[in-house]
Amino acid sequence: MKRILTTAALVCLAMPALAEGDAEKGEKAFNKCKSCHQIVSDTDETIVRGGRTGPNLWGIAGRQAGTVEDFRYGDDLVAAGEAGLVWDEAKFVAYVQDPRGFLKEELDDSGAKSKMSFRVKKGGEDVYAYLAQFGPAEAAADDAATATD
């Protein structure tokens, strides 16, 4: 019984929080985002071909901000990540609506800046729901189940 509860807990922790937005609407809204962003899995499978001005958004749900390998983030986004910023729906939506304002508030620094100049006026929760589908959660859940066997 303890093993089953442990496995269930690990699976729940490995999965990103369920987003409240509409993933179908988010997929359509993501068309604006892909001019700068792409979604490419850890195994180099291209899910959405896009620009490379912004970081790859694979696994963004539950990821520490500013941590995509080989991407040059702005100093303030990296600092926010190092201070504990992890992308959940609320943080993601607030960031995409006003990246600079979000970082100013998150870091309590009126001089904070963001390299992302585009703002998502509405539907940020839908974009997050769409992106939350793509990440290593399934692999982590499989690893958790295997580890307790």
UniProtKB/TrEMBL annotation:
**N-terminal signal peptide:** 1-19
Q: Does the keyword Thylakoid apply?
A: no
Classify the source by domain of life: Bacteria
Instruction: Please provide the record's keywords in A-Z order.
Output: Electron transport, Heme, Iron, Metal-binding, Signal, Transport
Record has Ligase as a keyword: no
Boundaries of each Cytochrome c domain copy? Answer: 21-135
**What protein name is recorded for this chain?**
C-type cytochrome
